[in-house]
Sequence to fold (479 residues):
Amino acid sequence: MSAAPLLSPTARALAAQLHAALADRCADLDRADLDRAAPAAPAPLPAYRAAPVPDDLRPGRAELIVEASDLSALRAALVSGADAVVIDFDDTFSPTRANVAAAYAALPEWLAAPVPLLARPRALYALEAHEPCGGQPGRAALCDLAALLTAGAGLTAREGLTAGPGRMPHLYLPKLESVAQAQVWADALALAEAHLGLGRGTLRVCLQIETFPGLLAADALLFTLRDWAFGLNAGRWDYVFSLVKTAGADLGCPVPPRAGLGMDLDAMQAYAQALVDVCRARGAQAVGGTAAVAPDPRDPQPALDAVRADKAREAAQGFRGAWAGLPELLDAVREGLRAPAAASDAAPVTSARLLDLPHPGPLDGAEVLDTAGLALDVFRAWLAGQGVVTRGGRIEDTATAELARALLWQWVTVCAPLDGGATLTPDTYRALRRRLAPDDAPEARLLDHLVLSPLPPAYFPAEAARLNLTDPPERMPHD
Fold:
């Protein structure tokens, strides 16, 4: 007997319309990624303004992000006092069938909560093999969008209110890299609004500027989605992952390890400044990154002070909101965001500034080993259906695992020097990795594939599918 569909009949009707209109264009995006064509320089844009910020998203807010299938964390988040709750189908989410089913089933419950709500659907590259459309695996972003926009319809009927589409969350759109991707999202939003009987621009979205190509095209992305987009959000670790993946082979020297990629670097300050500059010019809201530390219960103050300082830095740059990874971080995020904005007197953002990463010198072998261990720990959990792990006092997810594997790939590619005089060759890498996991472990097979590829694969979930490590295997349409 086949498993029950993941989508409700109402959601499936919307998903079918979205796939009929957009599936071929999504496949074109996949092929463009495989071709690795250099992005074209953005054309000059006319004057425009971003969409208004939703009334329920007040400035200075601390948004609590929760993995979409973690129902206990979800219920706790709804009563946590967060200024808004973000339900995440992306970086913190492992898309097993059971997790997707649980997340979709919980949507009416959290849409009924009297809390400002946002949701992050999966990125356009991801597939949903458990919800096929037209004989092909469904496009996860379109399935998530359909589920998110229709789950509240029953609430209206139960409460005896006027029939209609019901409550819908605001959206974060992840992993944007090109105007073509932004146009697919724009068309999906317009089609969904028409299907639901809503006026154009009723929905509100915030664009995640968490890729290096996406940063270079941030103004054009916002322009493409200007009828719906009210802001830009910084995703620090995803951005550094994308920067390493895109430019790492051409830098000629090793990228610093994660501990050396803090926001105090001028390259990272330039990233944040570029995002805020677009927001100021277009009347959009800049939303900061995630506070993702796990405070030590015996002495939480150092972690809370670090969060407060990080958010004060963001506020000084012009960010008006930020994310917290745990409820106990909400107050520190809010307090940091109360810092006044500073006068903008920084140097102009240039490609040279964005790529100006310091030479770390010989890499500490223990740090290289820990980088591999982080990737392996997250991959092992993700393959087992868990999207988040706490490790060394930090909340780790697919974004930090992607950064870890990209760093390893870059270090191997440039034969990074190690302390003691050795270099990180493929054989040296394998020897280090074998200290942590055997060759036949699924997470080791995945990491080896990612690190030893001549070019860095785009996203590890797609590579896990190609290696038949997901259950069931989710082959890409063009494979």
